[in-house]
Write a structure and sequence with these properties.
about 425 residues; mainly alpha
Length: about 425
Amino acid sequence: MPAGGGNRSAAALAVEEPFVDVVEPAPAERAVPARRLPRVAFGLYWAHLFALFGLAASNSLLGLAVLASPFSGKLRGLGRRAVRPLLAIAALYVVLLGVSIVFSFDPQRSARGMSEVFSLCTLLLGLALLRNERAVRLTLDAVVLLATLESLAGLVQLVAAGGPDLDHRIHGSMSHYMTFSGVLMIADLVLLGRLLAGSRTSDSRGDWKRDWRLWALLPINAALVATLTRSAWVGLAAGVVALLLLARRRLLLWWVPVALLALLLLPSSVLERAASIVDPGDLTNSDRICMAQAGLAMIRERPFVGQGPNMVEERYPLYRLPQAWRRDIPHLHDAFLQVAAERGVPALITLLLLLGLPAARALAAYRREGGRGGLRADLWLGVLGALVAFAVAGLFEDNWGDVEVQRLVLVLLAVPYGLVDDARPEVP
């Protein structure tokens, strides 16, 4: 039985010590409290992800995790040589955020963008606390549990609405259907990576009968389809293609029968929504093209510091094209264009590095450990598939500006560093 898996649930594993750092022996009267401190910090970190169904609760738990982490003895892990490049990129991202606020057309309004620094604590604590395979698996279980419960809530809403309906989009307990679909998409790719991993991996991966997590694919995918969210669908498709290219290339030949099966089984509202993705006459498609053109004009005007955080919505009417469908928009419906318009091209480059460096590290580790047959192939595949899906979906939606989705991505960015440090994968 591997130390980190088997048939045991996340709740059962959560009570075990997920850290294996070697520490000097402590006096007997201090041993128990010293062991509990890392558990408390990790437990709060785990809980803040599971509690993303309520952002206020998640914020409170993340704040407590930040306060508890200095007493856990784990923050010294941030000084590791491996994580320094990523920390430098994250620090530069924060600096450029501050610069864009200073040079904003309305610094007071833009200053609210500093709240993103708090969310970045999810990445920092992840780099400190996720230092071995067991901790990583427990944390990803929190993401899967969250998505499973949200998908079940969304399916109840679907039944109440009488089927997929653009006027009554399901959203679970979350504030918006795009947030809901973004969370489901990330968890879906994490699970698909587990499903496609080779049979020589530990923790019963790929076995429906022995792995409770794989059963969550059913409600998660059903709810994701029912959201009618095209950006999440496109992101999911891109993530699946990436996973198949890495692990199961022969399955790419099945796209024709799968497409025919979808035509037979899916409701007409879903098929019509899918067809609208490539319809140039669709109002929302043409409107997003107008948004992109307005965003490029914003960037050309201020390429280095941008308009300022939270200023795109305010200044969009100045750049809006006459043929644009909507007069006012909350964002540009493109995460990367949004960052460049708000904060400048240097901030966009920093964001791309922040996403790309962990992805490159995960890909290198996946190949080094034997590809699909590696003991941790499911984790590498899950991270890579989810990051690809997030990036592609971000071309059509400002998902980086969605706090719930952003925090899940920040966890994924920390995973490759914890697993690479834990150089000895668990053996069945």
